[in-house]
Design goal:
mainly alpha; 3-stranded mixed β-sheet; 9 helices
């Protein structure tokens, strides 16, 4: 339905690096392209001129692991801006907002299966962000579908969840 959700994998066999790199290649490419576009926007705005490789090197990350760094955190560390300013810069309408090619990301049922295949427990992360955009009825429709695919839990407590969301998620998980 056009919304992105995050599925966490607890207890995965992270040593299956070749398998994981292959399975996550399209996700990594989409994230890399988003970061490169955002860095280009920063360059065009005259704020900073840095490549993806330089960003990875300066933050201590090598290769594909740089994709897990949020550009906001990098901007805070390197650019001396507040968390709020960095957030505004990278959100829709911000000077460094870059769309991500969501078509390249795996679907939730694929992520759940991947996590199960490597011995993990699939958990829906920060579901409140989904309900904030799609609504609670959409969550109630999607949750049983994900559970049928093997979803085992939901992140109930998250800094972005409202008190009402936390209470509703607690009820759902009982």
């Amino acid at each position: 339905n056009g919304f992105t959700i995050h599925i966490l994998g607890y207890g995965v066999d992270y040593k299956q690096t070749e398998f994981l790199q292959s399975a996550l290649q399209l996700n990594n490419e989409a994230l890399a392209a988003k970061i490169v576009r955002a860095l280009d926007l920063y360059r065009q705005a005259g704020i900073m001129d840095i490549s993806l490789q330089e960003m990875n090197r300066m933050t201590g990350c090598l290769g594909k692991t740089g994709f897990i760094l949020w550009l906001r955190d990098f901007r805070i560390r390197l650019g001396g801006v507040t968390r709020n300013q960095a957030k505004q810069e990278t959100e829709k309408g911000g000077l460094a907002y870059a769309e991500c090619d969501n078509e390249k990301f795996m679907m939730p049922h694929q992520a759940i299966q991947l996590i199960k295949d490597i011995g993990g427990i699939p958990i829906w992360a920060h579901a409140g962000q989904f309900t904030a955009h799609a609504g609670y009825p959409a969550l109630l429709k999607l949750l049983p579908e994900l559970m049928d695919c093997g979803l085992k839990g939901m992140e109930v407590f998250h800094s972005t969840h409202s008190r009402l969301q936390t209470e509703l998620f607690c009820q759902l998980c009982r």
